[in-house]
Amino acid sequence: MALVLKGKVITELGIRSPASSFFSVFIKQLHNLQNIAGKVHEAKVHQGDDWHGTDTVKIWTVTLDRKVQTLKESIEVIDEQNKSATFSVFDGEVSKNYKTLKINLQVIDKDDTDGVAKWTFDYEKLNENIAPPYHFLDYITEITKDVDAHLLKA
Length: 154
Prior knowledge:
- This is Bet v I/Major latex protein domain-containing protein.
- Pfam families: Bet_v_1.
- Belongs to the MLP family.
- Residues 4-154 form the Bet v I/Major latex protein domain.
- InterPro entries: Bet_v_I/MLP (IPR000916), MLP-like (IPR052006), START-like_dom_sf (IPR023393).
- The protein is an alpha+beta fold.
- It has a domain at 11-39 and 77-153: Alpha-D-Glucose-1,6-Bisphosphate, Chain A, domain 4 (2-Layer Sandwich).
- It is 25% helix and 45% strand.
- Strands 1-7-6-5-4-3-2 form a seven-stranded antiparallel beta sheet.
- The longest helix has 19 residues, at 135-153.
C-alpha cells in the first residue's frame, strides 16, 4: 500500500469588500499586511527588491497554531485577470513538517457587495505521521476577516 503524503485543503470564506480590492492587498499591498492583520507581527524582504515580484522572498513572523513562528514566502504566479495567485511557503516550522506547501488564493465576485476568498493549500508531508495543514485554516480565516474589515472601513 502506497503512503499518501500529498494532499489539498480548501476553504472558501465570504467577504463583503470588493473582490478586486481584497485581491490587491495580497498582490500590490502585501507590505501592509503586518499593519492590517493581527496574526502578522512582522514582514520584511529577505531577497529581491520588490515586495510584490515573483522573484522576491519575504520573511514573516506570524502567530500560527497559537505560537509565534517565522517562515519564508514567495509569490510564484499572479493572474490578475482571474484574481488568483499562488504563494510558496517554506523554512521555519513549515519545513519541519512539509516538503512543499503552496497556497493559492482566488477571489471571486458574487455581486457588487459580496465575494468569496477561496484558499487552497497544496502540500506534501515529510512523513505519514504529520497532519495535513489544517492549522493554516484558522490562520487564513483570521487574516481574511482582518483584511475584509480593514477594506470595509476604508
